[in-house]
Amino acid sequence: MSAEREVLTWELFGAASRELAQAVADSGYRPDLILSIARGGLFVAGSLGYALDVKNLHVMNVEFYTGVDERLDLPVMLPPVPNAVDLSGAKVLVADDVADTGATLKLVRDFCADHVADVRCAVVYEKPASSVKCEYVWRYTDRWINFPWSTEPPVVTKPRQVLDA
């Protein structure tokens, strides 16, 4: 990974999310719902929802990153897990901020695959090492990314819970 960082400002994010939505629209894909991967994907999903006129947004909580370039061995789905019945037969657009290793996107895409009519992924950034090649990508990079929502430290810090394996 390069020592240089990709810096995404709020203003640039606005342009990026609009261009990403335009790519989805230009492809002819019309999702029935957008499935956000929390937390970074919440911003992307909300922006895509407005731009694509999709009000049906769902959230999947997945923990993988624990710090800058630090992650768990495997991504972990956190409750509440979406009910597969709610996704049944739908065209789903999975939204996240970055496809880094692709492990989180793969977990979510595989969860959806058996239940939905079609699942596609949209991300702001995709890295070369990603095991998932997303259908919609705003920009490709091999750098660490400073997102506007996660660059500053939290205002308060809660004690971390330890997940039992």
From TrEMBL:
Gene3D superfamilies: 3.40.50.2020. Pfam families: Pribosyltran (PF00156). CDD domains: PRTases_typeI. Keywords: Glycosyltransferase, Transferase. Transmembrane segments: none annotated. It comes from the Bacteria. GO terms for molecular function: glycosyltransferase activity. Residues 6-152 form the Phosphoribosyltransferase domain. This is Phosphoribosyltransferase. It comes from Actinomadura sediminis.
